[in-house]
Amino acid sequence: MKSSNEGLFFMFTSLCSGTALVLVTQVISKQGVHPSSQLAVWVQYVGHFITSTMQLQASPKKADCTRRQSIFKFSIGVCHVCAYLTVIIAMTKIGAAMYQIIYSSGLVWAAIVSRVVLGKVPSLQQGVAILIVTAGLVLNGVKMMAASAPSSGVPASDLLTGSLLTLFITLLFVLMPVLAELANKDLPPQKHLSSAEIGNTTARVGLVVLTVSMLVY
After folding, report:
1. pLDDT at site 75
2. Are 83 and 122 in contact (CB under 8 A)?
3. Is 194 left (phi over 0), alpha (psi -120 to 50) or beta?
4. How many CA atoms lie within 13 A of 162 on its CB side?
5. Cβ distance 86 to 146 under 8 Å?
6. How far is 24 from 121, CA to CA, in rounded Å?
7. Which residues does the chain have with pLDDT short of 70?
8. One-character DSSP codes across 162-203
9. Residues 93-151: tens digit of each pLDDT
10. Count of beta carbons in the 10 Å neighbourhood of residue 163
11. Angstrom distance (rounded) from CA 198 to CA 71
């Protein structure tokens, strides 16, 4: 009964975290670089912290992580925080719709980064999926860029800056699972970092950075 209740609570907190993420994008796209935007992201990290902490408490104890794993965990946390803070700027430049189109290119970049860093070669099915996604993104991106630039009054420089920032964000999110795989490389499965461990470190880094940022801002 206890494990069942814990599972339901994890599901509930995960749904709350996902709902918070939707609210984050809505607040950012409307408020821009504003304390409320930082607060929205801060709330998202609180949800991550609560969920990951309870998962760690419920999971069996294991050996302490190695120095290499600790470095990679912290690096993943930094990537995550940088990505979320950059979202605030990117959203104000290109809007939520264009942001989602560029961010969806993550599948393509994941294949490229995995090939370069991990030496993984996509299968035939994955290759076809990547080509389809790429074609769809190009068509949608060109169509939206042509439709929004003249009518929205957004300067071309802002569109370019926002697009480049969104691409940077996408690469950071793609890099995180690659770093996690590198952290566990050549280690037995029982010593691998769990998603809860990585998420908890990421949440703590995010809470510290955003708390300082909100106090200073």
Report:
1. 92
2. no
3. beta
4. 25
5. no
6. 35
7. 1-37, 61-63, 96-99, 101, 103, 134, 137-154, 217
8. HHHHHHHHHHHHHHHHHHHHHHTTTS-GGGSPPHHHHHHHHH
9. 777 666 676 767 777 777 778 777 777 777 777 777 777 776 776 666 666 655 555 55
10. 19
11. 11
Strand residue runs (E) in the chain: none
Sign of torsion, CA 31 33 39 40?
A: positive
Residue type, 3: S
Structure tokens at 10: 């994890």
| 57 residue type, one letter | Q
Angstrom CA distances, 160 to 27, 64, 67, 75, 196, stand at 22, 45, 40, 28, 36
Q: How far is residue 155's CA from residue 165's CA, in Å, rounded to a whole number? A: 16
If DSSP codes are grouped into helix, strand and coil, which group holds residue 96?
helix
- 8-state DSSP, 104: T
Q: Chain-centre distance of CA 183, in angstroms? A: 18
- And the tokens for 51? 């969920």
